[in-house]
């Protein structure tokens, strides 16, 4: 029998016994947990300034504000106001409420915007320096030959 974790040789399909023993060994070995998080582990947090983390922060903040307007409008409609009037009042009421209720979301959004701006500004300065000839090209690109 092959050791757990080694690739199978032969027919290409591991036997069910080998699969079960390797799954059990992977679940018990601490090294396997460090390399790949389990199914219950939360996804890694995106790094600040990353396009995905900025998009996520914007999406969460906008969604929270839209839900707040919808909830307020729904309550006003249950009271008996027409839809258009309820939406207008909900928009006016939701603005100051969102400033208070969603302060952590707004702070995160501001932080992500600042990080994205700083990253963009640094890239712009690197490119300008490279075009002026002040700085060597990045390591991932070869130097131009004369």
Task: Itemize the secondary structure elements and their pairings.
Elements: H1 16-28, H2 30-35, H3 51-79, H4 83-101, H5 103-132
Helix pairs in contact: 3-4, 3-5
Say how many strands there are.
0
Write the element-wise H/E pattern from the N-terminal end onward.
HHHHH
Summing up helix and strand content along with how strands pair, one would put the structural category as mainly alpha
- Rg measurement, Å: 27 Å
What does the overall shape look like?
rod-shaped
Largest sheet geometry: none
| Average pLDDT, all residues | 76
Total helix count?
5
Q: List segments where confidence is low: pLDDT < 50 over at least 5 consecutive residues.
A: 5-34
Could you walk me through the main structural features you see in this protein, from its secondary elements to its overall organization?
With 146 residues, the chain is mostly helical. It has a domain at 51-132. The protein has helices at residues 16-28, 30-35, 51-79, 83-101, 103-132. The chain is rod-shaped and about 75 Å long. The chain crosses the membrane at residues 54-77, 83-102.
Question: What is this structure, in a nutshell?
Answer:
The chain is mostly helical and 146 residues long.
Features:
single chain, 146 residues, rod-shaped, mainly alpha
């Amino acid at each position: 029998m092959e050791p757990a974790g080694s690739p199978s040789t032969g027919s290409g399909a591991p036997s069910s016994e080998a699969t079960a023993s390797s799954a059990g060994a992977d679940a018990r070995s601490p090294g396997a947990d460090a390399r790949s998080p389990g199914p219950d582990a939360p996804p890694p947090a995106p790094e600040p300034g990353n396009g995905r983390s900025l998009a996520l922060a914007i999406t969460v903040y906008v969604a929270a504000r839209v839900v707040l307007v919808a909830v307020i409008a729904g309550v006003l409609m249950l009271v008996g106001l027409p839809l258009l009037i309820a939406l207008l009042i909900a928009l006016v009421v939701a603005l100051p409420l969102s400033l208070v209720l969603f302060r952590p979301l707004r702070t995160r959004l501001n932080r992500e915007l600042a990080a994205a701006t700083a990253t963009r500004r640094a890239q712009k300065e690197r490119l300008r320096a490279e075009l002026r000839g002040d700085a060597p090209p990045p390591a991932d690109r070869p130097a131009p030959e004369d």
